[in-house]
Amino acid sequence: EAQVTQNPRYLITVTGKKLTVTCSQNMNHEYMSWYRQDPGLGLRQIYYSMNVEVTDKGDVPEGYKVSRKEKRNFPLILESPSPNQTSLYFCASSFLTSGDSYEQYFGPGTRLTVT
Amino acid sequence: LAKTTQPISMDSYEGQEVNITCSHNNIATNDYITWYQQFPSQGPRFIIQGYKTKVTNEVASLFIPADRKSSTLSLPRVSLSDTAVYYCLVGEGRANFNKFYFGSGTKLNVKP
Description:
The complex is a heterodimer. Chain A has strands at 4-7, 10-13, 19-25, 31-38, 42-51, 54-57, 65-66, 76-78, 87-96, 102-106, 110-114.
């Protein structure tokens, strides 16, 4: 089954304790992306990756890191989490359609609470 | 990067046709218009995408006027299960691969 998986689905942690949220896709998509979703703010892009070893900042990259060492994986790293990073996080992967546009597939989400 | 404006919420009844309009005055030549659906605590799901005129698939239609400064998602005969947040997204073309902007979305509430 074609899917994007994220782990963990739920995480409660404390300020300053490094954490990694994993994301994996089995569709051989080149493009992957991380979003955070907060009430009233919709989805905001954190980082994206066009391919292996190619990453760039989205709209809200501060406090986050990413890496793309393999095509299927795109982990999100919080080196020193803070309470304002409490949010619902989504990973997405996309492919270029025959119409020359992208269609995104989203993971189930990771709900992170930083105390 | 083109931003979008949508109504915050809409109400409808089962069996009705629902039209949600999105404004994107600064749309660029290479931008596509895409709509996603999101249920609570789930990731967004692709509904439909278009560049100009009209696109129809098994779940929705997308109407885009000639100036492309707005678009309308049409959901025929909605049911209770269509209650969700709908996002209009501009970009996603090959020349604009770098950033996808979702906006706040429209919360559709379908009543029995």
